[in-house]
Amino acid sequence: MQSRVYLEKWRLPDWMVWYVSYGTEGLHGPELRQRRTLNVISALIPLSGSSYAALYLWIDAPGLWPAAAAVSLFGLFLLWPMIAARNMLAAWIFGATLAVVVQAILVWLLGRGSGLHLYFLSIPVIAIVCFGTRHAGWLVGLVLICAAAMVYSEMFITDPAPFIRVSDGLLTFLQVSAFVVVTCFATLGVYVGFIHADRAERSLEAEYARSEDLLYSLLPREIAGRLKAEPHATIADSLPNVAIVFADIADFTPLSIRLDPREIVDLLNTVFTEFDALADRHQMEKIKTIGDAYMVAAGMPNAVGDPAHRAADMALDMLKVARTSAAFLPDGFEIRIGLHVGPVVAGVIGNRKLFYDVWGETVNTASRMESYSAPGRILVTPAARAQLGSDFTFEKRGEIDVKGIGPVETWWLTARA
Q1: pLDDT tens by residue, 40-78
Q2: How many helices (H) and strands (E) does the chain have?
Q3: Keywords assigned by UniProt (predicted)?
């Protein structure tokens, strides 16, 4: 149906649209293009043949009628689309056999001087244009037959058949037209092949680039490289010193009730996009978002000397982003942040929707710090406090009983020193 609509845009007659589109229902891509090409060539060959037949009869009707009759056999190509709609291999054999047989008869009738044996070169080209690379074995056989017919004609069929009278002028005309037509066929076939190959390569390059961008947006570059090098390998790393930052929007449920869905999505997209930019700036690795929660880490997949410092800098900048974004809402909003440092295990999960994740007590503790934090504040553990040292300022919160962990001494991270 799409094929017919495409052709009708060119304002072709209905009968021509029907003929060119015959047998193309359900086809797409190269198959659709090849079938349309076959249909067009099946009409062009009889049209060309009829013009040659008329020429033979007009120039020398008594002597050239056998050649005119032979050329008229090309009218059988009008059956080609009907055969192709039912069986492509049968259409391949039918077209190749008819072309070789009729061409051989014409060369025998008119001789080598007519140049008609050059048309043997165009037969494999037409087969490739109409059928692609399918039936490669048959194509090799056709090339060998056409090459043998070409050589045989050049060496042994020198003069026209004894009962044919052909003028030198007609032979010269046929020879020149054969050179021109065969050159055009070969050039067109090569051009069509190259242009489609070029488009396919460019399309593959674009798809590859998109796939690469998608892969690197899902996974750290180093992890993506390892996965590409060993697609079936298990990627799991033990990292001794990683800083984990958890953040979420305080009182998000009541906020989501007050806002419509589009506003909620716009809010999260705006805030998390800014967080992504901060992660790039501080050379941290975004791990994931879960609803209104955002998780980022420093020191993975490659170890760094100052993971806690990077995490603290980012946490403070995240508070600034939240305050700026909150100004656009009537009631505003605030985020809670938790920070902890320690050993983790990281790896890639899944083989379809790949996901680089991190596990361990460090992750659980950082998540608890976020839960026990307060709106607009950053809660840190003793491990994080020790690594940050005097480079940042803190307020002591004191000991809190953390679910699943027990008593933990905590501090509020307030600013850079």
Answers
A1: 889 988 888 888 888 887 876 557 888 888 888 899 999
A2: 14, 8
A3: Lyase, Membrane, Nucleotide-binding, Transmembrane, Transmembrane helix
CB 7 within 8 A of CB 17: yes
Question: Token pair for residue 44?
Answer: 């062009």
Q: Is 187 helix (H, G, I), strand (E, B) or coil?
A: helix
Chain-centre distance of CA 114, in angstroms? 49
Alpha-carbon torsion (354, 355, 356, 361), positive or negative: negative
Helix (H) or strand (E) holding 237: strand 236-249
**From CA 187, how far away is CA 117, in angstroms rounded?**
18
Q: Which superfamily is assigned to 232-416 in CATH?
A: Nucleotide cyclase, GGDEF domain (3.30.70.1230)
Among 376, 410, 381, which Cα is nearest to 395's? 410
Grade residue 1 by pLDDT with cuts at 50, 70 and 90: very low
Q: Which residue reads 């008329």 in tokens?
A: 54
At 237, phi and psi to the nearest 5? Answer: -125, 145
pLDDT tens for each residue of 356-387? 788 899 999 999 999 999 999 999 999 999 99
> What distances in angstroms separate CA 148 from CA 40, 180, 288, one per listed residue?
28, 22, 67
Instruction: Considering the chain, tell me which residue range(s) the CATH 3.30.70.1230 domain(s) occupy.
Output: 232-416
State the Cα–Cα distance between residues 154 and 122, nearest whole angstrom.
Answer: 16
Q: Angle, to 10 degrees, between the axis of helix 88-110 and the axis of helix 136-156?
A: 0
Pairing of the two strands 392-402 and 378-380: unpaired
Pair of tokens at residue 265: 């999505």
Name the pairing type of β-strands 378-380 and 335-349.
parallel
Tell me the torsion sign for CA atoms 172, 175, 176, 181.
positive
With CA atoms as reference, report the closest residue to 70 among 133, 119, 22, 35. Answer: 119
CB atoms within 10 A of CB 349: 11
- Alpha carbon distance, N-terminus to C-terminus of the chain: 71
Taken as a whole, the chain contains a residue count of 417
Residue 254's alpha-carbon distances to 3, 260, 374, in angstroms, are 54, 12, 16
Residue 288: in which H helix or E strand, if any? strand 285-290
b (16+ CB within 10 A) / e for 400-409? bebeeeeebe
- The least confident of 111-115, 273-277, 380-384 is 111-115
Arithmetic mean of pLDDT over the chain: 86
Give which of 346, 350, 345 is closest to 232, Cα–Cα: 350
